[in-house]
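Here comes my example:
=====
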Amino acid sequence: MSRNLFVRESSGLSKEVGILDSIMLNLGNMSAGVALFNSISPYISQGGIVWLAAILGLVFTLPQAYIYMYLTGRIHRTGGDYVWISRLLNGPLGIVMAFALMIESTAFFALTAFFFSSAVSEVLTTIGTMDGISSLVSLSNTISSSIYSYLLGGLLFAFIIAFNIFKAKWGYMLVTIGTIVSLITTFVAMIVIGINIPHFSTSISPFLHYMKIAPPPGFASSITPFSFISTLLILPLLAIFTYPWMQATPAVASEVKKVNYVKMGVLVPLLLTGFLVITGFGLLYAAGGYAFTNYEFINNGFTYTFWTVAIALTSNPLLQWIIGLGLMAWEFAILAYGVIVFSRYIFAMSFDRVFPEIFTRLSKGGSPVYTHLFDLGLTLAFLILPVVSYNGATALYGAIVIGMIYFMTVSVAGGIYGFKNKSVPLLAASVFEVVYFIFLTYEAVTNPVFSFSEPNGAPNPITLGFVVGSFVIGALIYYVAKLINSRKGVDISNIFKEIPPD
């Protein structure tokens, strides 16, 4: 099959991504620091232990990492797992899945940008309250308003887009610097909590008092005893929000200098994420004990977090701000990696003639400028939603079910490749992950924590419409692209018999 099926002979993307950028990209994707904030602990079940669930989640995700490492070693192309699905499984299915994932991701990035102000606000509130600086508390209340959240989120996202437009390499640099800062500050926070373990109950008392979250006398009797079953119920939180998001580095594989760097960009971030989440939550349990920690998580999980506790445990203003900066850096890293990854998926689908060819054009700095501008426009549009309807916007978090369906599909593609190439380990890993993601899809749909369904079991109409609409629009885009290209004498179904885009 001739390469002229595609937009051009070569993508033009440069192989400038080294091992550090490769690792930091996926580490930002998995966002351990955000998991340690308030995306996990407020939702835990009675009787569960978060750090133990985190260990189980890491173990269950290792087969997925093997699939990604194996396939990226054989097929390392721009678009990563989109190429695997569309070439190994089915072309139109690959388009529908990748488009739905990008729409879900864009909504998530927009919400992250909007609620970046909540991370800033939490830092300002904690420092201002603990140090008696009323102006910080007042500033915190101000930036939490919808209009300031929109402006802060929009400007932050536009700043990241501008960096990527100017030069592709600068985009990676932004991710790497942001994630390194995140890592260092997380370790600082861990050290602060660790050295306070011997006298934790005394050291944390002022924070509990000022925040009005001190447990009542005899609270321990109200805490459900530890149960392994209850711990398993926490597993989906980590398995859906944190661990499986390892597709970032494979999505830019054609820009990475060596294939082994891509593989390391899958495994190392997963292990680091596991270490950070397990250790971060483990330190809180070691410091406060089971009953106290679970009481605070379940009753005050949006105030009592790894980050706020670390800030509260030190009276050193410099350390307080360093730790606070760490939380903000993790939020920033999500947006920085997201800009890169979104552009590469759209680039790959445009190279396959599904999206307009303009999205494959590169600037002198090697940046897909028009793809980034498309991303900016789409994200700013999504950013309006929390201003118009706060509850309607947060309902879009439930669209994370698209990710579970997507990863299940990737696992199926891996299984087919393993069967055809007689790779028993790949086939076994794929079968395990297919079953695992079926379970996680069920959890994402039925558990109200994930916002797809209401407490009464009925699906949230906004979330349901968004999810179904994403898949339907993806199918329509493929159908329209097929018609348009057929008039040019190109049957795009033949494109998926070839391995590029690259």
The radius of gyration is 23 Å. Residues 3 and 9 are 6 Å apart (CA to CA).
